Amino acid sequence: MIVRYGVQLEKGPFERRTADFLWMMIFGSFALLVLSAIPFLWSPFLAVPLVFMLLYIWSREFPNAQINIYGLVALKAFYLPWAMLALDVIFGSPLIPDLLGIIAGHLYYFLTVLHPLAGGKNILKTPMWVRKLVGRWRIGMQPINRAQPANNPQQESGSGVVFRGRSYRLGG
Asked: How large is the greatest C-alpha to C-alpha distance in the chain, in angstroms?
């Protein structure tokens, strides 16, 4: 599930926004730690809730995608977290970890997408230290700089390019 939905998030809404994806994961991890500190929501392992958080955010970013569950039931991606929650309950898994992930995912999605769309301020804007960290470690693709065109001859002069393709014909 991490591979399928995490990669689709990275290649879709978070393309060239590695710092924002990392901030989503950091925020989700801390939100899950805080939520699991509540005695009623306590969970010793937070891997399943983190996966459910990713699944919830993916389902909100791609709400009309068609999903097959075990090849038996086809439904829209918008309902996938709830269908997976129902399957986990049917199979006897605990309910709390799945709910923790859905709560953390909804908290992130609400604060970064829904609240700003309703006219509010983006409260969870990615901090500059996360952007600097991603830039320093060169994690993922860097955002496209719209200020300079991609084929800027001033950049090429110092980049060590030997052949520039002058295309002279020989003998003819």
From this structure: 85
Question: For 74, phi and psi rounded to 5 degrees?
Answer: -105, 130
Residue 154 has pLDDT above 90, yes or no: no
Rounded to 5 degrees, φ, ψ at 88 are -65, -40
144 DSSP 8-state letter: P
Cβ density class 150-164: b for 16+ within 10 Å, e for less: eeeeeeeeeeeeeee
Q: How far is CA 86 from CA 62, 98, 159, in A?
A: 20, 10, 56
Nearest-CA neighbor of 56 among 18, 24, 82?
82
- Distance, C-alpha 79 to centroid of its chain: 19
Q: CB under 8 Å to 99, separation ≥6 — which residues?
A: 41, 85
Read off the pLDDT band of 1 (50, 70, 90).
Answer: confident
Q: Which long-range contacts (CB under 8 A, 24 or more apart) does 14-20 make?
A: 15/141, 16/140, 16/141, 16/142, 16/143, 16/144, 17/143, 18/134, 18/139, 18/140, 18/141, 18/142, 19/126, 19/130, 19/131, 19/133, 19/134, 19/135, 20/126
